[in-house]
């Protein structure tokens, strides 16, 4: 059972991102604020859930959260500022959009760039420990997957409907065969030797 909050005194938002390791498409992030006594036994790290379960949980999260927001940073922006900074920026943009402002932030992972002097704590594997981070991981993942499904129609050669932009062998081979497109991150290297690592 995941924990509701890291601390009880301040309004707490959980943040997570999706798409950091992809070759194509934006990086997405979400921020979620739940009531401090919130519980939901079905919520878990998005990577532990099937696509069907993630999509079923999304409207529940959006209905039961005190506030939530989803934001993205484009492939072009990622190329300009690098993927780590883009992940922070996506989370900051999501926090900007919250209808209720967070007084405390918990973030999945081990690094975060301070947001507007709001105190934060980084939690490794936090999406498997705290409900708000798990919910943020589900929102970020489902919104990003939908975006990738939308642009996949125009670029069928890259098989984004199944790989969502992640560096599968088929995706890498397609980039080597057809070149990259406007949605690819140009600073991410796609070379022959790397194929053997996956």
Automatic annotation (TrEMBL):
CDD domains: RNase_HII_bacteria_HII_like. Manganese or magnesium. Binds 1 divalent metal ion per monomer in the absence of substrate. May bind a second metal ion after substrate binding. Gene3D superfamilies: Ribonuclease H-like superfamily/Ribonuclease H (3.30.420.10). Keywords: Cytoplasm, Endonuclease, Hydrolase, Manganese, Metal-binding, Nuclease. Its main location: cytoplasm. Residues 10-198 form the RNase H type-2 domain. Its cofactor is Mn(2+); Mg(2+). It catalyses: Endonucleolytic cleavage to 5'-phosphomonoester. One of its GO terms (biological process) is DNA replication, removal of RNA primer. GO terms for cellular component: cytoplasm; ribonuclease H2 complex. A divalent metal cation binds at residues 16-17, 108. It comes from the Bacteria. Its EC number is 3.1.26.4. SUPFAM superfamilies: Ribonuclease H-like. GO terms for molecular function: manganese ion binding; RNA binding; RNA-DNA hybrid ribonuclease activity. It is found in: Cytoplasm. Signal peptide: none annotated. Belongs to the RNase HII family. HAMAP family: RNase_HII_B (MF_00052_B). PANTHER family: RIBONUCLEASE H2 SUBUNIT A (PTHR10954), RIBONUCLEASE HII (PTHR10954:SF18). Endonuclease that specifically degrades the RNA of RNA-DNA hybrids. This is Ribonuclease HII.
